[in-house]
Every structure is written in C-alpha cells, then in structure tokens.
Amino acid sequence: AEIVQKVQNSQKPFFRPSIDIGVHSEELAVLMERCWAQEPAEHPDFSQIKIFIRRFNKREGSTSILDNLLSRMEQYANNLEKLVEEQAYLEEKRKAENLLYQILPHSVAEQLKCGETVRADAFDSVTIYFSDIVGSTALSAESTPMQVVTLLNDLYTCFDAIIDNFDVYKVETIGDAYMVASGLPVHNGKLHAHEIIRMALALLEAIKTFKIRHWPNNQLCLRIGVHTG
Question: b/e map of 49-87 (b: 16 or more CB within 10 Å)?
Fold first, then answer.
C-alpha cells in the first residue's frame, strides 16, 4: 500500500524500484530503467525488449520462460490497444449518430447511414405548431447576451422534454421561435391536429410555472399559432 501511494502521489523525484547491480547485469538494469522512464518516448518497444532478452538468455543459459512471458505480455498489450481503439471508435460513432438524429428526422438519418438516396415523401395533411415569446425584444434589451442564451436554453430544454410525450417532430428553433410538426416525417393518419393541440396545451401549462433565472418575478407569455393543411 505504501508503494502504491508513492506512485499515486507523483512526488519528485518520482518513486522507482531500487536496482542491485551486483545481482543483475548492468545491461539489464539499463533496460529496466528505460522501461519505467518518465518520458514515454524513452520506453523501448517490445521488439527491442525481445531482442535483448533472447541475447541475455543465450549468454546466461536461461530457459525460454522469460521469452514466453514476454510474448504473452506483448500479445496482451496488442489486444488491449486494439480493444481501446474499438471502444473509442464505437463511442465516436455513437456520438455522431446521436448528433445526426438531432439534426435530421430518424427516417432520413437511417437512409443516410445506409448510403441510400433520401427519398422525397408527400403528405396529404399535417399540422404545424409555431410559437414565440411575447415581448422578447424588450426582454432581450434588458438582459445580457448570456442571460438571453440561458433563458432560451432553459425554456426549450423544458419544451423538448414535454414534446417527447406526443407524436410530434421538432422542426427547428430560431431565436425565440419554436416550430413543431405532427403527421411528418411519419404518417399518423388524422391524429396530427389532435397531437399538436394536446402538446400546445401542455406547453401553455408549463409556461405558467417556468421561472426566469435573472427575472424571477416576471411571467413569460407564449404566443402560439397552429395550422393544418
């Protein structure tokens, strides 16, 4: 435990094992010191270590135990490196896919992932919701840029959590404008108007208890428009 603590503390001079030159050859001592050098560039690679160990074993008449152990260590290191690369690749792929799903409809994103041409689709009837904040210009004039950004982030994070409960698709947010559609990109028959109205009522209910961080005593008002066609 004491040795582990010394290594974790990274105190200078850095803790390293002591070497008895009387027990080990000077060449082996140098190799060990290179292996635990602080600078990674000074570390020997496995091919260099294998060459030295084989040469050392021949001189000392040793068995191949060390050679086998070294081969196992090299294989383990290579497998570990490959595993880390695969995990890193999968993590970056997951992040890229999540970003793609946030930017594009799921159906469109899936077509792009498969290398397919995105097919244009026609919809007989859909319902569009759009809203903005009443008095947003005056509110922005009395707030700092960061306060406006925080307000919009809080508000639309709240809205995003609510619309997940309805069969709708968020089209975009521009400034204080919020646009949502139902009936696309996935057809839902004649339910689109019903879903949008239910969602709009839920947003109106949420805005009643929404608090502005830098303006806690004021109440936001939402202006909503809905169109079906």
Answer: bbebbeeeeeeeeeeeeeeeebeeeeeeeeeeeeeeeee
221 contacts 133 by C-beta, under 8 angstroms = yes
Q: Please report where in the chains the tokens 């066609």 appear, as a residue.
A: 229
CA distance 211 to 206: 10
Separation between Cα atoms, residue 5 and residue 7, nearest integer Å: 5
- What are 46-82's pLDDT values in tens digits? 777 777 777 766 665 555 565 666 667 777 777 777 7
In the chain, the percentage of residues whose pLDDT exceeds 70 is: 89
CA-angle at 155, arms to 153 and 159, nearest 5°: 115
Q: Say if residues 33 and 19 touch (Cβ distance below 8 Å).
A: yes
CB atoms under 10 Å from CB of 11, counted, come to: 10
pLDDT, tens only, 84-109: 888 887 788 788 777 777 777 777 77
